[in-house]
Amino acid sequence: MNKRKNILKIAIDSPAAAGAGTLAKTISKHYNLFYLDTGKIYRLVAYLKIKFPKKFNQNFIKKKIKSLKVKDLENKDLLSDEVGTEASIISKVKSTRKIVHSFQLNFAYNPPKKFKGSCLDGRDITYNIVPDADLKFFITANLKTRAHRRYKELKSLNKNITYEEVLKSIKKRDKSDYNRKISPLKKTKDSVLLNTSKLTKRACFLKIKKIIDRKINT
Ligand code: C5P
């Protein structure tokens, strides 16, 4: 694989609904980076499994990922709790991760020329997908805060779900993402930890911006 030289690569890992996506989008816009929410790819695979159960196999996934456009990941159906839960199940399958892996590598190391680099967020980005990232972050927040944020988000999308159901589902996903054998969620030693529980979106961005600016100005 060709790799673009002298680009800025930012890698972010986080548990569900910790605010990493919002933060990563703001960072990407500010520093003109190509942004990928890698969870959306697993969500897309999960969505395909729910929508086309009979066709769903490794070849089907391969074909879909090969022709995948960033635009496909904007489908609002990917945001449901059902799809998120299924995503945490299919993401444990080694062959599925392998297919998704190459798409992410190309995205991280070959962003279009108009971008100064890339920013990816997910569960295994800092140590598996972009281990040589210039900056690594582990974004987290306490369970209740995350459940409240996700509940608000799902309600704004008119999803029929209670806070208790969201809390239960995030707890289940945490357990699975942290404890699975393949590519579990973890904070690497070289990642900067940011707990967003008591911070506004703006405060989170300013904290991260300070760290990025220090790095790119040295
Ligand atoms: O980030 P999001 O909550 O949308 O991710 C959905 C699920 O996809 C996660 O719970 C996790 O199991 C899986 N995932 C993963 N590796 C990534 C990103 C997401 O296994 N890099």
Provide an overview of this structure:
The protein has 218 residues and is of the alpha/beta class. Helices cover 51% and strands 12% of the residues. It is built from 9 helices and 5 strands; from the N terminus they run βαβααααβαβααβα. A 5-stranded parallel beta sheet has the order 2-3-1-4-5, with helices on both faces. α3 packs parallel to α5 and α4 packs parallel to α8. It is globular, with a radius of gyration of 17 Å. It starts with 7 loop residues before the first strand and ends with a helix. The model has no long low-confidence stretch (mean pLDDT 96).
Q: Within the largest sheet, what's the order of strands?
A: 2-3-1-4-5
Determine the structural class based on helices, strands and strand pairing.
alpha/beta
Head-to-tail CA distance between termini = 29 Å
CATH T-level topology: Rossmann fold
The string of secondary-structure elements, in order, is EHEHHHHEHEHHEH
CATH class term:
Alpha Beta
- The number of helices is 9
- How many runs of DSSP E, i.e. beta strands? 5
Bound molecules: cytidine-5'-monophosphate
**Mean pLDDT, all residues:** 96
- What spatial form do the alpha-carbon principal axes imply? globular
Q: Main sheet?
A: 5 strands, parallel
Helix content: 40-55%
User: What gyration radius follows from the Cα positions, in whole Å?
Assistant: 17 Å
Query: Which segments are poorly predicted (pLDDT under 50) over 5 or more consecutive residues?
Result: none
Question: What is the CATH architecture descriptor?
Answer: 3-Layer(aba) Sandwich
- What is the quaternary state of this protein? single chain
Number of separate structural domains = 1
CATH homologous superfamily, by name? P-loop containing nucleotide triphosphate hydrolases
Percentage beta strand: 5-15%
